[in-house]
Write a structure and sequence with these properties.
The chain is α+β, with helices and mostly antiparallel strands and 132 residues long. The protein contains three helices and four strands.
Length: 132
């Protein structure tokens, strides 16, 4: 042994304090990221409601071409709901010769979310959300 190496211990690994600091930092990052991630998942899942309203728009335009007005009767436009996971029903709130309004409400992961479409012949379609 040389004079420099006497009494020195070679340290390998991490101390308990260093590990605790790393765990605290990871925990803080997770506590920030997880709520943001869940909100984004709801936004993505609510796109199913927008797709449903797009189907309703197409069916309403076909109905308008035959009858000269938009309908408030869901059965009259014949929308198939079998493939939907979160948005399984809709309501046609208003319909006349100028436009219509349709609302679909989410279930499961999208519970409490409503997607609303208002369509007029002059302005086109506008889509809005509640509950996001």
């Amino acid at each position: 042994m040389d004079a420099k190496g006497m009494g020195r211990v070679i340290k390998k690994g991490f101390t308990l304090i260093e590990l605790l600091i790393v765990f605290i930092i990871v925990g803080l990052l997770a506590s920030i990221a997880i709520p943001i991630y869940r909100a984004n998942i709801k936004k993505v899942a609510s796109s199913e409601g927008v797709a449903l309203l797009g189907t309703i728009l197409t069916a309403q335009k076909a109905y308008f071409a035959e009858h000269g007005r938009y309908t408030t009767e869901e059965e009259a436009i014949g929308i198939e709901m079998a493939g939907n996971k979160y948005f399984r029903d809709f309501v046609l709130v208003q319909g006349d010769e100028h436009g219509f309004k349709a609302i679909t409400s989410g279930t499961g992961l999208c519970e409490g979310i409503q997607v609303i479409m208002e369509f007029t012949n002059t302005a086109g379609a506008t889509i809005s959300y509640t509950g996001l």
